[in-house]
Amino acid sequence: MNTKRSGELFEHAKKLIPGGVNSPVRAFGSVGGVPRFVERGKGASIWDIDGNRYIDYVLSWGPLILGHAHPAVAEALREAAEHGTSFGMPTTIELDLAQVIIDAMPSIEMIRFVNSGTEATMSALRLARAHTKRDKIIKFAGCYHGHADMLLVQAGSGVATLGLPDSPGVPEGTTADTIVVPYNDLEAVKEVFLAAPGEIAAVIVEPIAANMGFVKGKHEFLNGLQTLCKNNDAVLIFDEVMTGFRAGLGGAQRIYDLDPDLTCLGKVIGGGLPVGAYGGKKEIMQSVAPAGPMYQAGTLSGNPLAMSAGLATLRTLVGSGVFDDVSKKTAKLAEGIATIGKENDIPVQTGHAGTMFGAYFLRRSGVEITDYETAKRHADTDQYMKYFHAMLEQGFYFAPSQFEAGFVSSEHTDDDIENTLRAVEIFVKSERRT
Ligand code: KE4
């Protein structure tokens, strides 16, 4: 495959931008090879600067549930831009998008828009600390909630590890109140609450962990977190930046029939433009300035272009059969990969929820990945690297890391899914021969 221009541009980019990219995962660090510079996208496809076409299963890491350059989104952006791009003043479209989200997710009684998932989780945690007047927070190893200092903590292998910074530049004091616990381990969380009665402000969790690959929260684990938080007056925060309008139209919380105190959103609600949000119980949200004393602000929060793209996306999605149709294709893809692995004695673990999925290549059969420790132990990252490049060469773009999830759009056709599975089979059979 000719990647000459991408290669040249990447070398040039590294002189201007650290690592040549504006977000690390785009640099293909864990799979190697030449990161593709995209020229354009349309529907389920992207074309790189060398003219190669790929069926896209990353979709900008989730936002593009309607595919690239969807007419409804493009038209909404054109119309919005003709009225101005930003005012720093209230506009009605912020209320329209807020209402659509509140109607879809009953746990959200009030919402605040921000510009990224990082801002959403950072603000939700500050709000939880303000509301409870407590400092300690619990997060789970392998869950990613953006790059706010207090969340960049090392994932210990013990029952619970006190927050040691996981990046230079993060002061120890900033993570000292962040407690890291293994995912899906409710007993470990109980122990933390017992050891620190009245000190835990919040528990933040990805209900479906999609930043360690694809690991569903167990029902008893998530139910248990909700009970523990209620019994200890701690705030339960569902980070649904990835799962919101992806795992289900009401997020993962509707699938699990849970009622988190706060929810963080992003990605799909911006339709490909920068939008994040945090929202939840009115009693808590009323503490947010200027209604209350907890300060949070943003020049471009509620930006009319971003709101327009998000609203066009959700209005196309909600109330139509689109979401169910994409979910069926997603299930067919994930289950098809599992079948191909099984038929060819290549151990894989796949999962899916709504329009998102995951696929691990395992070092051996008979094991299950349920948390970050088992993901690191059992995921065969070398095999994944070979799979990633084999699929790329055949024109299918999957996440350039084993520890990410995959996404399907309304524009992926049944033929796309069939052709993808055929390419997977070609790869798997080639692996069997080696
Ligand atoms: P952003 O700040 O990147 O908008 O959102 C942070 C975030 C928060 N919560 C969850 C559950 C997330 O998955 C994310 C960001 N997801 C990654 C993909 N694993 C974004 C890709 C990237 O970092 O470039």
Notes on the structure:
The chain has 434 residues and is α/β, with parallel strands linked by helices. It has 2 domains: 4-69 and 321-433, Aspartate Aminotransferase, domain 1 (Alpha-Beta Complex); 71-317, Type I PLP-dependent aspartate aminotransferase-like (Major domain) (Aspartate Aminotransferase, domain 2). It contains 14 helices and 17 strands. The strands form 4 sheets. Strands 4-13-12-11-8-5-7-6 form an 8-stranded mixed sheet, sandwiched between helices. The mean pLDDT is 96. Residues 23, 25, 61, 116-118, 121, 144-146, 206, 211, 239, 241-242, 266, 276, 404 line the site of ligand KE4.
Outline: globular
Question: Helix/strand/pairing class, anyone?
Answer: alpha/beta
Ligands? ligand KE4
Total number of beta strands:
17
For the record, the CATH class of the largest domain is Alpha Beta
Ends apart, CA distance between termini: 22 Å
Mean pLDDT: 96
Radius of gyration from the alpha-carbon trace, in angstroms: 21 Å
For this structure, what is the CATH homologous superfamily of the largest domain? Type I PLP-dependent aspartate aminotransferase-like (Major domain)
Please give the order of strands in the largest beta sheet: 4-13-12-11-8-5-7-6
List the domain count as a whole number. 2
Helix content: 25-40%
Number of helices: 14
Largest sheet: 8 strands, mixed
CATH architecture call of the largest domain: 3-Layer(aba) Sandwich
CATH topology of the largest domain: Aspartate Aminotransferase, domain 2
Beta content comes to 15-25%
- Are there runs of 5+ residues with pLDDT below 50, and where? none
